[in-house]
Amino acid sequence: MRWVDELTTAARETATALVDHDGTILDYGTLNAAVAECQRAMRDHGVQPGDRVLVVAENSAVLVVAFLAAMRLRAWCVPVNARITGAELDAIRADASPRLTLFTVAASTDAAAHASRLGATTGAAVLGRALTVLADPTARPEPVQETPDQQVAALVYTSGSTGTPKGVMLSHGNLMFNALTTARARGFCPQDVIALATPCTHIMALSTALLAALSVGATVRLQPRFTVDGLLEALADGATVMTGVPPMFEQILRKIDAGEVAFSAPRLRLIGSGGAPLDPALKSRVEARFGLTLNNGYGLTEAGPGVTSTVFGPVRNDGSIGYVYPDCAVRIDAPAADGTGELLFRGPGVMLGYYRNADATAAVMTEDGFLRTGDLARIDPDGAVHLVGRCKELIIRSGFNVYPPEVEAALMACPGVVQAAVIGRTVPGNEEVLAFVTTDGSTDGPAIAAHLRDRLAPYKRPQHISIVPDMPLTSAGKTRKPALLEGFEPPQAG
């Protein structure tokens, strides 16, 4: 088993490794030299093996260099999206106790704002720019392990879309399994150019895009944050692989269909979706426009992240999340009569545990090593997995189970609906179903309700449909449902 920092050492030195946020091109020789440079700078700031190095970042070469430098030092990298709030960052810093906090100020105004608020200072130069850093000499290192499957590589905090973020300890082995498995399954090669607009501070982009690409000597084109124009420019310039979350594809289609942007992707060979449920109607629209199968995958931070993907089986036209990763296993815990229950997962990508939270770790791990995903699913006889919803989001309406993704799919099939989110709300003696949608302006609440009458049983239909200007999102691009519920006010009777 290999260490993460060994990923880039076998690539041809003159091959392009990264296209930075400002268009700067780094070959693998330059990348490896910058990693050594950053490694020395971190050591000068007191970083030792077992220390935490927190990187407040948006996609940029400095983020990649800092991550790999921490790996070489056997420190733990704590990648944090710069778009989180000051309070969220402070809570993560308090929990992680980093020896060094580094800010990618050149690529992110939000990172610069955090650095200014916290009093960060100028450090050594890497890639021709001075690092912006904050050191804490009181931090203490964690024990260092001798093997890649036991040594923590990354401490990745969960997005907090359903609760308080927790620090997930992922080993070098966890990350390498996901990176190498993804690279093989997608046929990555040195000639590939990966257009990467999803944040590398989150596990999906980090291990199944960035590290997977670097493992084969491919090129990664970094976009600090997603814009339709920026991503389409990367495709027109010859990107071969693009992965994203469903709202990204929705925004791309909207602008193309409105004639606001031109679509050209001469070398594009593979597209994939993950991070959130993929509506079958959106999948069909994307495939018609791109002329490619839109692969669908499912994972979670605690699995590093890969659990299932459609690349591991025959092409599917439904909303299945695909088939389990090689050398892994899934099962349904306590299935209901229809086969639905909590999805459990076991494999080489499963985390070492939650940092400083043994009780939370024990709560999600079974005695035989399966991870409780917290997601409801069912498995077809051929092994295809279908996600039904989150255990915590299950709505029980008049004694019947209502799964939000099913209602959301029906809403998304309504003409004029752009995004949909369904939440349960407790009322005296029952739960009611609330729907929140964004639209293109061509529909309204009564029309949406009429659309649902022919598609959903009465108990599944929302009691209230609210049209909102936009969906509150986490930094990972997932809908932050609690925020919708906080702002909800039921209409007054009469």
What does this protein look like?
- The protein folds into 2 domains: 376 residues, ANL, N-terminal domain (Rossmann fold), CATH 3.40.50.12780; 93 residues, 2-Layer Sandwich (GMP Synthetase, Chain A, domain 3), CATH 3.30.300.
- The mean pLDDT is 92.
- The protein has 494 residues and is of the alpha/beta class.
- The protein is built from 13 helices and 26 strands.
- Helices cover 28% and strands 27% of the residues.
- The strands form 6 sheets. The protein has a 9-stranded mixed β-sheet with strand order 2-1-11-10-12-13-14-15-16, with helices on both faces. It has a 5-stranded mixed β-sheet with strand order 4-3-5-7-6, sandwiched between helices.
- The chain starts with 15 loop residues before the first strand and ends in an 8-residue tail after the last helix.
Can you say what the CATH homologous superfamily of the largest domain is?
ANL, N-terminal domain
Q: Compute the number of helices.
A: 13
* Widest sheet: strand ordering: 2-1-11-10-12-13-14-15-16
**Could you tell me the number of beta strands?**
26
Short recap of the structure:
The protein has 13 helices and 26 strands.
Give descriptors for this structure.
single chain; 494 residues; alpha/beta; Rossmann fold; GMP Synthetase, Chain A, domain 3; 2 domains; nine-stranded mixed beta sheet; five-stranded mixed beta sheet; 28% helix
